[in-house]
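Holo prediction — 2-phosphoglycolic acid.
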Amino acid sequence: MKRKIIVGNWKMNPPTLDEAQAIFKKVKRTAANLTSTYVVVCPPLVYIPKFSPLRLKRLLKTSVGLGAQNVFFESQGAYTGEVSAPMLKEFGVTHVIIGHSERRAAGETDEIVSKKVLAVLDAGIHPIVCVGEAERDIHALYLDTLRNQIRNSLSRVPKKLVSQLIVAYEPLWAIGAKDAMDPAVIEETVIFVRKVLADAFGQENTLNTLVLYGGATNFRNAPDIVSRGKVDGLLVGRESVNTPGFVELLKAVDAL
Ligand code: PGA
């Protein structure tokens, strides 16, 4: 059975380490009992050492992947406030979200995203690259926007590393919204995303590249989005810090 992946983007939540540890503990316990679903938790950076599977330089067996929400593209140097991919790797980070719309809104361009993606791949970490149009128009110009965003954001990815890549399709108007996108439209758009990837890197190289959906997912709509939307998984925002809802979501998706 093909594995699904659920990524929890905690954003700047929860406000205390105690709360963070409580959520992490429950998610980890739930994840250990899933059979076809892999879970990645992306907490705020300062909590990462607390959840690190590394002890005495050994990687402990763990049921949950550990993700960061951002990274810098240089590996070291005079870059105040930045953290590099090799530094994240030292703490057992397995995934990094890159180019989330909230970061793009703060000035992150496709060019910066592409440098970060390469740095993360070089460190042996999976990049989760966020793409998505701001709005839809009747002439379908948004498809050009999406194609350009994907091509430019991934312009530095070597063909042989495309299988390590995860693409998260997140239409901006669904992020933080009340309702998610219709699963039938998700399916259509994800086919387009896969086609753009195949055109850029070759069909055979992209067979294992995962494509996720993100935007207003919760335990109610998640199973339908994964099955009818035909995505490899979800990038979950708000529901990922609502522990009972997230636990339900994981179980429901795993039961598909
Ligand atoms: P949301 O956020 O699930 O709260 O809509 C999704 C995201 O920002 O990745």
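READOUT: The CA atoms of residues 2 and 92 lie 24 Å apart.
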